[in-house]
Amino acid sequence: MGLFTKDIQTMDDLLLHGLKDIYYAETRIVRSLPTMIDKATNRDLAKGLKDHLHETENQLARLDQVFAKLGQKPQGVKCPAIDGIIAEADELAGEVADKEVLDAAIVGAAQSVEHYEIARYGTLIAWAESLGRDDIVRLLTTNLNEEKAADKKLSTVAVRKGVNRKAAS
């Protein structure tokens, strides 16, 4: 079911498609975070990524609850956006030899992922609200708030914890 196909006829269909998209994205992120954690040399960065891996697993569990509330089986639909963001991060990480510069690249890649998720969850919440689905808005809002917090933590690691400064010197 593509975004601009006849499979999406109603706002409910659109919401379900968006949920499948973010489910796929979260699943891909769970699979890709361990590689980022292994490549990170900055202790604060590695810890933040590990913490977010656990959060992402909890976000998937919340999405399972959302699907259940909609009477649907949890499943993903291929998301070219997250695949592209992750592929770009993998390619970039393979090109960076300096470990401190690599840490800065990992922060940037992780923030790109977070920004995609923030945008997607914001849209899903708006759609769910328009459909009067307050029962799932709460779960999606929890995920959105965690994504925003993860983005702030990454900024803190980059700026206050010195990842960018070390990479620049």
Descriptive tags:
mainly alpha, Ferritin, 6 helices, 169 residues, elongated
Question: Strands, helices and their partners?
Answer:
Layout: H1 11-39, H2 43-69, H3 80-95, H4 99-130, H5 134-159, H6 163-168
Word description of this protein:
- The protein has 169 residues and is mainly alpha-helical.
- It has a single domain, classed as Up-down Bundle (Ferritin), CATH 1.20.1260.10.
- It is 80% helix and 0% strand.
- The chain contains six helices and no strands.
Please write the CATH class name: Mainly Alpha
Q: Average pLDDT value?
A: 93
Number of strands: 0
Beta fraction: under 5%
Count of discrete domains? 1
Oligomer: single chain
Q: What's the main sheet like? A: none
Basic shape: elongated
Look at the structure and name the CATH superfamily. Answer: Ferritin, core subunit, four-helix bundle
Order of helices and strands: HHHHHH
Structural class: mainly alpha
> Given the structure, what is the number of helices?
6
Helicity, in percent? over 70%
Distance between the termini: 48 Å
What CATH architecture label applies? Answer: Up-down Bundle
Instruction: Note poorly predicted spans.
Output: none
CATH topology: Ferritin
| Integer-rounded radius of gyration | 17 Å
